[in-house]
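Moderator note: this is an archived Q&A kept for reference. The question asked for a predicted structure of one protein chain; the sequence and the answer are reproduced below.
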Amino acid sequence: MSRTVEGPGRVRRVALLSVHTSPLDQPGTGDGGGLNVYVRAVAARMAARGVHVDIFTRRSDPRAPATVPLAPGVDVHHLDAGPAAPIDKQEVTNHLCSFLLALQAHPSAGTHDVIHAHYWLSGWVGRRIAPRWGVPLVQTFHTLGVLKNATLAPGDSPEPPLRLLAEERVAHAADRVLVLTCGEARLLHRTYGLSGARLTVVPAGVDLDRFAPAEGTAGVPASASGPELLFVGRLQPLKGPDVAIRTLAELRRSVPDARLSIIGGASGNGQGSMGPAQLRTLARGLGVADAVHIEDAVEQHHLAARYRAADVLLAPSRSETFGLVALEAQACGTPVVAADVPGLEAVVRGGGILVPGHDPADHAAAALTLLTDPQRAAAAGRAGIAAARAASWDRTVTRLLDVYAEVVAEHRAAARELAPALLAERSA
């Protein structure tokens, strides 16, 4: 699919803001996750349709060049804002003004047709730079502070009032707020009173060339030496890697040779309450240390093979805006056992089992159903593949370009209407 948008809203150059994390970072560690995958995937596909994409991110490595070509027509720009080192997301707020000034001074400043900000930190910058450049602002939050605070995991810290206030102001200032699911749209409407005309659902996609079942294996048990459960994601309370380990301990009462692989790095600055050391301690206390393997995040092409090698993916997140990991696993034909939260409920339909709550016994029972019922596992595998095939990144990019064209056309029309009044005011 190579469609580009013509007409009054024609978009030729887009600025993507990803202040706190770079699309060049490894997903699944630090602050890298689905947002990184999203930005990288849509940027490359927009460029393939003739739209030049500039991605602006904070320099977190002194050796990083000022500009890195990510793909033909896509440039990643590292802006100096605070120390050229990884810092906690909370600390990034202290350097947003510096980022804004660096962005305003960039050689490409003001050459874009639209700004698309990702996460609230980027939205803070986008809300201020868009009027200076005279272009519309599109916002995708990816996660919302109000949702996280409503679903806090034990021991997790609530999001600060600054984030909640900034999200509200960005939501009202943006020309369009893009949401990943209908549930996120309802949350923004209830919380901030945004009208449906200012909200557009644009689901994330999946790389169907990379994430696909091995030929002839959909629904076939993956492991020969005992069932393998898989958890993929950052090691933080929100994602529930502790629930995954407790689920394994419950499951081994019925399936003694079941194993669990955990793939992901410590969240943020690596000093959280649920890093590899804490998880290994938990596994020892539950008597399953010999059956739990924890490893660092892996590149996407290796990750696809790991999905295919697993019998069940565990996704016990306390909240998710969009369950990208669950979608990738389903694209590989791997059934999913997931917490029944809005972002996962929108992704995991026939491709697995949704479990109310986070009781490990309930998640283990769901996994046991898939492991002991080959027909149900095979049906889930087929359903997951079908769902994933309807969720390509190309489809996401088509929707994005349509939204960009709409807001650009609206913005230009509004500017034309205001022009006579401004001229009269200047000549008065």
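Archived answer notes: The chain has two domains: 13-205+392-427, 228-389.
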